[in-house]
Amino acid sequence: MTQETLAAIADRYGTPTYVYDLDQIRAQYTKFASAFDWPKLKVCYAMKANYNRDVLATLKDMGSGIDAVSPGDIAMAQALGFDTKDVIYTANNITDAEMHEIAATGVLMNIGSLSRLERYAKAYPGTRVCLRINPDVVDGAHDKIKTGGDLTKFGILTEDVDKVTAIVHSAGLKVVGLHEHTGSGLQKADSVLRAMRRIMEIATRENFPDLEFLDFGGGFKVDYMPEEAPINIEKMGREITDLFRQFCSAYGRELGLWFEPGKYLTARAGSLLVLVNTIKQNRGRTICGTDSGFPQLIRPMFYDAWHRIDNISNPGGAPGVYDICGNICETGDLFAAERTMPEIREGDLLAIRDAGAYCYAMGGTYNLRPMPAEVVMEQNTFRLSRKRLTPADLVALILKESGSVNGQQDLTALDGRPDAA
Ligand code: LLP
Fold first, then answer.
1. Is any ligand 1 atom within 6 A of the Cβ of residue 264?
2. What is d(CA 84, CA 215) in angstroms, rounded to the nearest whole number?
3. Domain identity same for 101 and 243
4. Distances (CA, A) of 259 to 74, 120, 178
5. What is the mean pLDDT of residues 235-260?
6. 131 and 150: one domain?
7. If you measure from the C-alpha of residue 189 to the centroid of ligand 1, how many angstroms do you get, rounded to a whole number?
8. Are 378 and 230 in a shared domain?
9. Residue to mutate (ligand 1; options 55, 142, 184, 191; most atoms within 8 A of CB)
10. Are residues 274 and 262 in the same domain?
């Protein structure tokens, strides 16, 4: 994405606007998939990272499946034509109603608690199921996104696997997959291998005659910070495939090797374009105010995440140090603190980089500011993918959802009756 293109996009669609480079996503998918020399490789993109329809359609064309975590995810995957057999459902803490809703779609359920497995077994004996095991490997870029170990809510603990086997056998469930996900942004090169060994031990020890695949989740790191080294996916891919090959030959069957990358596939392809509207000198700090905010890109505030920021309008400006803030009435509304940047002036366009994963997708309309537009680029052309609502559109939507008709609230438009006090 050249600076001229980003400036042209901002010119055409205004700001704030997310831009996704679909060619970059294609290249990243190819890089990932070709790192594993395994005929039964399956990549199920973790669509929680970015559910933009063009991003999903691009990954579908590349041959990707989907890791879904809500009925909404499944509905979106179905609407875009993903094959049911290419979708895996890894939600946690679901209701019985949700379980039945998903079972009716035919999507394979990945179950991560004994309680849910018992209820599933009772309702759907003899059916296919995947089991999510807690790998007891603790890793991830931030405490909030480590999913292994006993301090997290995810997966069946290894010591409970005996109980699982009892439920499975008594209900005649077909365990077709075993799954683990260690965390997001894995920091240690051997975490995946250690987690794989745990799952492979269980596969070897327990008798799951219908086993078709092992799913080792996502978590492949993106180097957000300048001093961070990128992961060597080719080397990781070789090590993982070698280990899996040894396992399969000992196991006696060539199983599927599944992964669920999210941020590795889409983070780098995205930028959020924001416009600088206010520069303020605050006793030695230079505050740079923009027209977006943390509800539109929450990672810095939520995970202390670092995103590169480029000054598109003044790339060669003299360096200065800036607090780059949003327009939300909260002190923590910062995209970057004390960031050294080429001089920022009022009216400049900034691009917040590596914003293609867990940015728009985690967004909301706090302070009643509509979410940014989304624009996609491919082969040097760009187009609008999702529009930015006007504040009036947003308010009209909320009032409609509140049963508002001509300024009055019509409860019959909701559920027809007020709740008893
Ligand atoms: N599979 C499962 C079961 C997951 O829970 C996740 C992410 C993934 C795959 C994909 O992980 P990835 O490859 O994207 O690291 N909002 C956080 C990340 C949360 C990840 C949650 N689960 C962030 O912005 O860093």
1. yes
2. 17
3. yes
4. 18, 24, 12
5. 97
6. yes
7. 17
8. no
9. 184
10. no
